[in-house]
């Protein structure tokens, strides 16, 4: 065991640490996270607009409120790409101690520069009969997210390079900082925007696919094959557990920067399908992973904290379990498991690594079968990752079946963790006995 821990500490932890400290991954993680308030607000409006009570939506339409609620959804939830276009270069440039706001503003312009300003106009049969001015909403939401990421990383890096090389317009010392920063951004901004304008013009002139279509084909299709399949997500869940075991935040290293854009794209497409009254196309969304796979947090540790709480109620329970139980149970019900990860601990604990990896993997398979078979409808709203289970399932899908599924998954997680927690408890009792 000591040899294994030594290998983990000396070989795996440094590699995972360098991966987790990568500036580009941090920028993607932070950039997508900045859009979460709008996603949650939009989801709340969506839940109100389509609350699963017979006649509710018709009543909202009759009193003239329904259209305004969906307008709120479109103006919040469906702006993921636009927010990311600002936030990703902002985060990246800030890591280089430069002006992130100017970098974000420039990238919004670059994002719009490569985005077509025409929407197909369809007849009643769905056939295109021309175009009308404007930006297709899909470019601002999930359809443009990969372009926002690619341009954000490229343009953010180019911007900080100009600043690092001091290629900018300098103003006298007495000029207000805001004005000075604005002038400093002119040269890198002009280079970046003219470059992307030329790219858009060349593609348009030769009737080639636009940047959105190219990026979606080159990056979107391969990543979607990972994030949209059971096997791909199964591998992600296993890697997430192993990273956490090594003491590396699996969500920050793997889920948030790499998988979250894919899962959010699937969620927004489900939202659009729900609004249109169509079948939801995706099982794997950010909401599905947060509320049906990682219940209680990474490792599905709600099963661990409930099992620990049950053990702690016994008369002969160890003092350690009695102390840790209230500290881990209440946060765990709200999917906050840092007290468990570092208090039990789970990190670098070979006694809990097996259920920590297996429990969310089992949840993934069971939940997938329930959703794919139609027993539970798909997720289309985000109740927030801190929403307690049972409630979150109902809000995310509008169905009581999802709440029942969460209850079943929690029972499975408890059964998976219980024998291992008994072993941990036995070690604690032996340790306390030896100290007497």
What's the arrangement of secondary structure elements?
Blueprint: H1 2-20, H2 23-33, H3 36-49, H4 56-62, H5 66-74, H6 80-95, H7 100-113, E1 118-122, E2 128-133, H8 137-140, H9 145-164, H10 177-184, H11 186-205, H12 211-227, H13 230-245, H14 250-275, H15 286-293, H16 302-312, H17 319-333, H18 338-343, H19 353-372, H20 391-397, H21 400-435
Antiparallel strand pairs: 1-2
Helix pairs in contact: 2-6, 2-14, 3-5, 6-7, 6-9, 7-9, 7-11, 9-11, 13-14, 13-19, 16-17, 16-21, 19-21, 20-21
Tell me the helix content. 55-70%
- Low-pLDDT stretches are none
Largest sheet: 2 strands, antiparallel
**CA distance, first residue to last residue:** 26 Å
Number of strands: 2
Radius of gyration, in angstroms, nearest whole number: 25 Å
* General form: globular
How many helix segments? 21
Question: What is this entry, summarized?
Answer:
This protein has 21 helices and two strands. It has 436 residues and is mainly alpha-helical.
Labels describing this entry:
3% strand; globular; 2 strands; 436 residues; mainly alpha; two-stranded antiparallel ribbon
């Amino acid at each position: 065991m000591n040899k294994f821990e030594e290998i983990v500490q000396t070989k795996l932890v440094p590699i995972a640490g360098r991966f987790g400290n990568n500036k580009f991954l941090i920028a993607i993680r932070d950039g997508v996270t900045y859009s979460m308030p709008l996603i949650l607000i939009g989801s709340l409006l969506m839940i109100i607009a389509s609350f699963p009570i017979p006649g509710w939506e018709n009543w909202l339409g009759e009193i003239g409120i329904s259209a305004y609620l969906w307008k709120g959804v479109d103006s919040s939830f469906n702006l993921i790409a636009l927010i990311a276009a600002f936030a990703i270069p902002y985060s990246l440039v800030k890591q280089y101690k430069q002006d992130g706001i100017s970098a974000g503003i420039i990238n919004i312009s670059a994002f719009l520069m490569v985005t077509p300003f025409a929407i197909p106009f369809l007849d009643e049969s769905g056939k295109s009969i021309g175009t009308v001015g404007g930006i297709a909403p899909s470019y601002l939401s999930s359809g443009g997210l990969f372009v926002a990421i690619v341009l954000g990383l490229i343009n953010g890096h180019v911007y900080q390079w100009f600043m690092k090389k001091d290629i900018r317009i300098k103003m006298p010392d007495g000029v207000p900082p805001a004005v000075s920063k604005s002038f400093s951004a002119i040269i890198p901004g002009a280079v970046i925007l003219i470059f992307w304008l030329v790219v858009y013009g060349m593609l348009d002139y030769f009737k080639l696919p636009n940047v959105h279509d190219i990026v979606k084909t080159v990056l979107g299709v391969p990543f979607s094959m990972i994030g949209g399949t059971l096997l791909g997500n199964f591998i992600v869940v296993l890697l997430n557990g192993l990273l956490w075991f090594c003491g590396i935040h699996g969500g920050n290293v793997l889920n948030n920067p790499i998988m979250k854009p894919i899962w959010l794209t699937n969620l927004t497409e489900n939202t659009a399908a729900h609004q249109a009254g169509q079948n939801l196309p995706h099982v794997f969304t950010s909401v599905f992973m947060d509320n049906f796979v990682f219940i209680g947090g990474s490792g599905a540790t709600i099963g661990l904290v409930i099992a620990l709480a049950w053990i702690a109620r016994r008369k002969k329970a160890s003092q350690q379990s009695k102390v840790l139980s209230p500290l881990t149970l209440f946060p765990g019900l709200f999917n906050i498991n840092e007290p468990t990860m570092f208090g039990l601990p789970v990190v670098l604990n070979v006694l809990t690594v097996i259920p920590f990896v297996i429990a969310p993997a089992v949840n993934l398979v069971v939940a997938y079968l329930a959703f794919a078979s139609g027993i539970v409808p798909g997720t289309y709203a985000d109740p927030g990752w801190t929403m307690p289970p049972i409630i979150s399932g109902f809000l995310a899908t509008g169905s009581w079946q999802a709440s029942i599924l969460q209850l079943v998954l929690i029972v499975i997680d408890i059964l998976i963790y219980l024998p291992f927690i008994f072993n941990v408890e036995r070690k604690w009792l032996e340790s306390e006995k030896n100290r007497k």
